[in-house]
Design a protein that fits this description.
By secondary structure, the chain is of the alpha/beta class. The protein is built from seven helices and four strands. The mean pLDDT is about 95.
Length: about 190
Amino acid sequence: KVICDGAFGTYFAERYMAGALPEGYNAVRPEWVRQIHKEYLEAGAVLLRTNTFAANRASLGCDADGLRENLRAAWENVRQAAEECGRVPGEDCFLAGDIGPIPGSIGRPEEEVYEEYRLIGRTLAEAGADILIFETFHDMSDILPVIRDLKKERELFVVVQFCVNQHGYSNAGISARRLLADAARSGAVYA
């Protein structure tokens, strides 16, 4: 049984357009995005993530308003897909806002990186997400302050997924064991 949907970008490239940024289609081809969500639900997935892994200003080449529009469209797509499949979020499926690393954040001012992650998380939460998944991070330094602040604003279930190499270390040189211990110790991350 499929518990969570799969790699949205890979499936999008196979199904519709190789080389395209799937997040760029949330508002312009919502039917494509919804169709992929529906196929994951029909395959048995009970947790769907928004098509927002690379939804950030750098990847989309947009300003803050354009990013908000994209994120809201992504949430609407995942919500409508569940509805069209006769699913009730919170009862027989779960919907999560997906947040990936912002390209070029290393070397950018911390406040600028913080503000962008906060914009992404807040917009998804305001659209309806009560689960946020921070996906493929090498440590928690950029996201932990954001997670804590977002959780002060509303109740959120937060998942952080780390990316480690075959030796069990992230690009920041942190072991998987320490990453998990740091996440548990933070008190802000549930899974």
